[in-house]
Amino acid sequence: MTPIDTERSITVTVNGVPRGARVPVRRLLSDALRHDLGLTGTHVGCEHGVCGACTVLVDGTPVRSCLVLAVQVDGAAVTTVEGLARADDDGGQVLHPVQEAFRECHALQCGFCTPGFLVTIAAGLEARNLSTEITEEEVDELVGGNLCRCTGYANIKKAVRHAADTMRRNGAELPLGNSAPLHEQGPR
Length: 188
Prior knowledge:
Blueprint: E1 7-14, E2 17-24, H1 29-36, E3 55-58, E4 61-64, E5 77-79, E6 86-87, E7 93-94, H2 97-104, H3 114-127, H4 136-143, H5 154-170
Parallel strand pairs: 1-5
Antiparallel strand pairs: 1-2, 3-4, 3-5, 6-7
Helix pairs in contact: 2-5, 4-5
């Protein structure tokens, strides 16, 4: 009888940077990001995949990182909220249009749910046809999978419309995962 491995080495490209870690085989992706890789922007709210606070992109698709084992993303590209902002040529930062819209529209209260909203909305807007204005149904769909216990969603929806308009006017200048992120080193 062969012994069962309780740990496994994984390699994941996180926010454009190849990262390796040795993780317990039952470690959740959310915990691996936070504890093993030091990326604390991904929040864990419900641990049941309901609230959306832990949403990250795996190969461009939004997933609830509290429902995915870290070993399941071995070899994948993962984008967290830390990977949305990009370094500019002067060493500063350029916020993703969704991040900028959340700031301008005051679309956050306590901020706990914000990373999940930002990642989900950014992916959704970048996947849609930017030549047309966003509909209210599309806005509702983009925010519908995330829960916010502090707001009435009005400013979050306003931020989605603002970001969509900005991206439509300027084009999606900041595609996810294509340039070096501002926070690529790990812990902040």
